[in-house]
Amino acid sequence: MGSSGWDWQEAGASALTGASPLRSLEQVLADHAAWLEQRPGGVRANLCGAALSEANLEGGNLRGALLRSAILLEARLSGADLSGADLQDADLRQAMLTGADLTGANLAGADLRLSLLAEANLSEAVLDRCSLGGANLREARLLDTSLHSVDFTSAFLKGAGLHHARAFGCDFSNATLEGVILYHAHLQTCRLVACKADGANFSFTRIQGCDFRNAQLSSARFFKADLSRSCFARALMGGCDLREARLAATEFFDALLNGARFGDAALHTTDLRGANLSGARELTALQLAQARTNDSTVLPSGRRGPFLKGSQDERPSLLR
Length: 320
Hints:
- The protein is largely without helices or strands.
- It has 4 helices and 6 strands, in the order E-H-H-H-E-E-E-E-E-H.
- The protein has a domain at 1-46.
- Helices cover 9% and strands 5% of the residues.
């Protein structure tokens, strides 16, 4: 392998503005392929700061390439291999990355707003401070991904997998998260205001200090999840599975929890004031006594609160 990368900036005009810019790019890719295969004369691609807007790199092999601060606006990268690539601070707005392999890539500070990342693999990638507002990540894989201060506002993540992902201070407001799977993920101080996450699976996830106000979470699963100190005020959570969840100091003010399951959930200081628990299942008198209810709480029995021991209002009306 060559010991140093091909320097786009030093190549200057011959790279993009010379007589044969396409040939120059093709040569970079050819030398990079040789570098990957450890053939003589191989040189790692160094496209740092390169202007590659609208470039056609579909199916290209840029594994381990250096693309820091590259301008890839509206570039075509569907099916490309960018695993292990350095894309820090790259401009990938509106880029097409459908089915691209970004496993282990460094995308810290990259701008991916309105990009198409459907079915892309971002497992083990670093996305810290990345902008993904309005991006399409349908069925993308983000397993074991680092997500610090990432902007996912209005992004489309239907069916995406975020198993073991670590999200701190991220903004998923107004994002579509229907059917997302977050097994064993860790979300801390994230905003998920008004997100659409019907049928999402948050089982075994730590969700601490997160904001789910006005979120749509019908039939979402929170089995054995830790939702401590999170806010679900006015969230739509009908039919949710909250069995064995930790709900210490969790706020469900005015939330719709009709038909939800609470078997063995820890409700110490859980705020259920104004919540609608009509038809909620597997609640015990002890659980409700430990939670905060008031006269605007609708208890599982259908009666108004506050909950009183011995009232049997922990039982759904059909079981009374």
